[in-house]
Amino acid sequence: MLKRIWKIGGAKFSIILIVAFVVFSYFAPLIANNKPLFCSYKGKLIFPAFRDLYPFNRFLKKDEISLKLQMNPSFLKVVKEEGAIKFSVMPICPYSPFEPNLEDILKKPSFKTRHFFGCDDNGRDIFARLIYGSKNSLLVGFVSVFISGFIGILIGGIGGYFGGFVDSVLVSRAIEVMLSFPTFFLIITVAAVLDPKFLNIYTLMIIIGLTSWSGIARYTRGEFIKLKEIEFVNSAKVNGASHIRIILKHLLPNSLAPIIVTLTFGVGGAILAESGLSFLGVGVQPPEPSWGNVLSGIEKSWNSWWIGVFPGLMIFLSVLSYNILGESIRDVFDPKENRG
Asked: Which domains does the chain have, with CATH numbers?
């Protein structure tokens, strides 16, 4: 199946793009940082930027440069002029995503200044904020889909397998209630009533996960209803298999194809939901970056096109890649397509 998915041109493009986003988000401290990758400071070789990257942060000792830069972003320039630094290698984008700079407010994109995507209305480098924000956006997408998938498979599986009162009164009604609310507006409502101090990436994961399980539950329920009357399930029942064994060993593995497709689409939907919430100010709160709150800066500076174009492009490419991958997986798992 993996080989067949890889042979699809759109799927190959999507997988490469998704892997690139994951790699960039993990190595963000080495791509965009106002700390040197390594330098010679007072006769010692130190690795300031690596201290922000797991697992190096576990064993690298605290260095003076990292501590001083937190209080004074110009510290590096000062010690270079004093000759305390013999040599240094900076990241490709030598700016912090958190530090504002009055001299760089609304600066246009430029390779010469290494502000590749320009700066926002606080003078923060947009490229740096997008690279760091990709971690938050992707993390919300994966974790929230894991939560919604677990709840959806559990509820849908119970309803589809046991049927009767459990299905018609408890499970089906719960799914219908959740489907009756527009998911995005339900998420906004839940986020809006929370105290702002609780609005962080972990809260968003839980909110999106707890409000997005109905579609997965519906697919799981339908697959379980279809499969539970097939011969191999009846054979397992005759041989004395328990309900849990039948569900986990026979029904769930054979119903994973449409569920995987739904989960893949769900990651893109969760990223889009997080971006929308952060854009509206009820998601990830600044100065912590996410694609949505970086994009929200365009509201204050409509003439600064780069503030809207580059975050919007990141969101578009990410959601598009998951949707194309979901379509490709669905085509591969479709028996009609396989016969063709």
From this structure: 34-90 (no CATH), 128-339 (1.10.3720.10)
